[in-house]
Automatic annotation (TrEMBL):
InterPro entries: DUF2063, DUF2063_N_sf. The lineage of its organism: Bacteria, Pseudomonadati, Pseudomonadota, Betaproteobacteria, Burkholderiales. One of its GO terms (molecular function) is DNA binding. Keywords: DNA-binding. Pfam families: DUF2063. Coiled coil: none annotated. This is DNA-binding domain-containing protein. Residues 6-93 form the Putative DNA-binding domain. Gene3D superfamilies: DUF2063 (1.10.150.690). It comes from Inhella proteolytica.
Length: 250
């Protein structure tokens, strides 16, 4: 006789795989199992769409259902929380033969990065008022770090205009009119300010300065590393990062 744990494992496999239950597992009709199998896939599809709202809107209900089914087949959920379902969707889409346009994978990356930013932890903010309140003797030893929500996102397609159009159409309850995305390698900065995720373009020199800040968290060392000629630009970045809510005290 099977143990309860064995019965539960067998039933779980049948639900997740969409296969008929082994003989003797169920009493009566198998309709109840079919309901669970449908609900399992429907809930995962909903979670995937919730984590990728712009992508789901761009491909439509039918297209997203096909994508979700293919992804579930290739990447069954392994995380204990449904919140993290879809973390490999963009990578899967890169190799999916039925993808309508390769730019959709980058749209998925932007969706996921924004959701990651929304859920990220928060360190005490070093905003403009906190910077202004620092005494001169505190600047030399000040050590900075980026908020956990801050991410650099490298993309191959200019999906920003499509994201804005989709977001505006969704807010208005309308269909978005999308133009053909342009191939363009570039980087975006993604972060959260308060409770709202944000993104913007990130130039290479600013990206390098942010990376240097991670390696040289002491503000005095970081400013010195920028060089005297670049000091005005470095101070401008520091002020902008502070105003955007990117910085925290290490």
């Amino acid at each position: 006789m099977k143990t309860l744990a064995q019965i539960q494992a067998t039933l779980q496999h049948a639900v997740r795989a969409g296969e008929p239950a082994p003989d003797g597992l169920l009493r009566g009709s198998a309709q109840g199992l079919a309901i669970y199998q449908h609900a399992y896939r429907a809930r995962l599809r909903e979670a995937l769409a919730d984590n990728h709202p712009a992508l789901a809107q761009a491909v439509g209900d039918k297209g997203f259902a096909a994508l979700a089914a293919a992804y579930l087949e290739a990447e069954p959920p392994t995380e204990p929380s449904i919140r993290w379902y879809g973390h490999r969707l963009a990578a899967f889409m890169d190799g999916w033969a039925e993808l309508p346009h390769p730019a959709l994978a980058d749209l998925a990356r932007l969706d996921w990065a924004l959701r990651q930013a929304f859920d990220a932890a928060a360190h005490p903010l070093l905003g403009p008022s906190e910077l202004a309140a620092l005494r001169p003797d505190e600047w030399a030893d000040l050590r900075l770090r980026l908020q956990p929500s801050v991410q650099r996102l490298d993309l191959h397609w200019a999906v920003g205009p499509a994201w804005h159009a989709l977001n505006a159409a969704r807010a208005a309850g309308q269909e978005a009119e999308l133009s053909e995305p342009q191939a363009r390698a570039h980087s975006l900065l993604v972060w959260r300010s308060g409770l709202q995720p944000h993104w913007r373009s990130l130039a290479e020199d600013e990206a390098a300065a942010l990376q240097a800040l991670l390696q040289e968290p002491a503000l005095a060392d970081w400013l010195a590393a920028q060089g005297e000629a670049a000091l005005p630009q470095a101070v401008g970045w520091l002020q902008a990062w502070s105003a955007e809510g990117l910085l925290a005290v290490a």
